[in-house]
């Protein structure tokens, strides 16, 4: 798959190398061409010099065929503007923005743009929001049989209880991230718009659970 990253600082360059290392195609955008030295000589992806929220620059980076876009430059305004351009102009579904101000991060989270605050998050958390669910697990048990993974939930599950979600999927809710904060739901808690759901799943069932939660919930008997 193709990925576009805006910002070739420590986080951006780490993301680019990690994605390329696991076999993906990567383009990275930065205003300062000298920043690309952080990628090292072995990086084979596209290096695009330019403003990361400029449409022509993004087209050069392959935004029209990208699976996911990450804005991880040093500026909050640039990151959120680039994330909005990627989503609203080019229709990229998987977008994440790095935001330094945690209060502003919560505002943008409510607008439907996943954000990561620098104090709490590092490159691997950004990866989890770019890659298809299940490709990067948050935790694995000693046998490798069970994982905790963040799984996308279709908006049609909003208002349904997490007890129902567990019944339908056979997975267990480990915790939620709601407005940037981790929380433990009760069985009667209902799924809200913007909730990030972290499930305990058998590794062999990850894709089955993803398919279930990517569709409308079945009617209850």
Description:
The chain has 221 residues and is of the alpha/beta class. The chain has seven helices and eleven strands. The protein has helices at 10-21, 55-60, 76-89, 102-110, 123-130, 162-169, 206-213; strands at 2-6, 25-30, 46-49, 68-71, 94-99, 115-117, 139-140, 146-151, 172-178, 181-183, 196-202. Strand 5 (94-99), helix 4 (102-110) and strand 6 form a beta-alpha-beta unit.
Key structural traits:
7 helices, 221 residues, five-stranded antiparallel sheet, alpha/beta, six-stranded parallel sheet, globular
Q: How many strands appear in the DSSP assignment?
A: 11
Order of helices and strands: EHEEHEHEHEHEEHEEEH
Strand proportion:
15-25%
Radius of gyration: 18 Å
Topology readout:
Blueprint: E1 2-6, H1 10-21, E2 25-30, E3 46-49, H2 55-60, E4 68-71, H3 76-89, E5 94-99, H4 102-110, E6 115-117, H5 123-130, E7 139-140, E8 146-151, H6 162-169, E9 172-178, E10 181-183, E11 196-202, H7 206-213
Parallel strand pairs: 1-2, 1-4, 2-3, 4-5, 5-6
Antiparallel strand pairs: 7-8, 8-11, 9-10, 9-11
Helix pairs in contact: 1-5
Task: Please give a quick description of this structure.
The protein has about 220 residues and is an alpha/beta fold. It has helices at about 10-20, 55-60, 75-90, 100-110, 125-130, 160-170, 205-215; strands spanning about 1-5, 25-30, 45-50, 70, 95-100, 115, 140, 145-150, 170-180, 180-185, 195-200.
């Amino acid at each position: 798959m193709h990925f576009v990253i805006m910002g070739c600082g420590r986080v951006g360059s780490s993301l680019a190398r990690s994605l390329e290392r696991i076999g993906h195609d990567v383009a990275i955008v930065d205003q300062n061409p000298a920043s690309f030295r952080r990628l090292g000589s072995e990086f084979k992806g596209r290096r695009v010099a330019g403003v990361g929220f400029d449409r022509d620059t993004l087209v050069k980076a392959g935004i029209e065929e990208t699976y996911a876009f990450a804005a991880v430059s040093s500026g909050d305004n640039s990151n959120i503007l680039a994330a909005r351009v990627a989503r609203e102009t080019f229709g990229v579904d998987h977008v994440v923005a790095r935001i330094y101000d945690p209060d502003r991060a919560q505002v943008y989270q409510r607008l439907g743009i996943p954000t990561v605050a620098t104090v709490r998050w590092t490159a691997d958390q950004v990866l989890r929001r770019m890659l298809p669910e299940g490709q990067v697990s948050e935790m694995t048990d000693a046998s490798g049989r069970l994982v905790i993974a963040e799984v996308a939930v279709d908006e049609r599950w909003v208002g349904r209880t997490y007890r129902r979600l567990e019944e339908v999927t056979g997975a267990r809710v480990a915790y939620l991230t709601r407005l940037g904060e981790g929380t433990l739901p009760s069985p009667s808690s209902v799924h809200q718009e913007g909730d990030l759901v972290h499930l305990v799943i058998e590794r062999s069932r990850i894709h089955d659970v993803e398919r279930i939660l990517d569709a409308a919930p079945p009617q209850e008997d």
